[in-house]
Amino acid sequence: MNNNWVRAGFAVAATVGLSLAATVVPASATPAGPGVTGTIISRTTIGDEDYVLRQITLPPGQSTGWHFHDGSLVGYVQQGTLSHFDAACQPDGVYKKHSVIKEPAGADHVHIGRNLGTVPVILDVLYVLPHGAPLSEDAPNPGCDFE
Asked: Which CA distances in Å does 89 have to 22, 110, 127, 143, 147?
């Protein structure tokens, strides 16, 4: 998938009539690090799916906490480098500025995003979720020596 597709997807989501109100809330997972925030840029429901465009900021040294999603998502790294780890405590991706990340749905895809760098990581994320599902589901640390 190329970056133009992701940018086009974000643009389409924004023009489909999504909410114009931005809401800043702490990003949720188990536990998100101090200062991790998520701002909902827009959201809409089409049929039985919710489309949510959100910007997530992870300060240096912080993480999303362990979690999974009930739907799929695609993200675009605006700034920084996101280190992504799976439930086996192994890195399954390092996403630098202008990279695209895709996360599949399901409790069998528990993961954590970490900012191991010195600048904030800023992600633009498009969630495609079953209607009414939360953005993420908390998950316990699977036994890794990091949060």
From this structure: 34, 10, 24, 8, 10
Range of lowest pLDDT (14-18, 67-71, 141-145): 14-18
pTM (2 d.p.): 0.81
Question: What are the CA-CA distances from residue 88 to residues 28, 98, 145, 146 (Å)?
Answer: 21, 27, 11, 12
Tell me the torsion sign for CA atoms 123, 129, 132, 137: negative
Matching residue, tokens 């480098």: 81
3-state secondary structure at position 44: strand
Q: What is the DSSP string of 75-134?
A: EEEEES-EEEEETTS-EEEEE-TT-EEEE--SGGG-EEEE--SSS-EEEEEEEEEETT--
> The tokens of 32 are what?
């998100």
- Residue 16: the pLDDT is 44
Q: CB–CB of 107/68 below 8 Å? A: yes
Closest CA to 12 of 128, 134, 129: 128
Given a contact cutoff of 8 angstroms between Cβ atoms, the answer to whether 63 and 147 are in contact is: yes
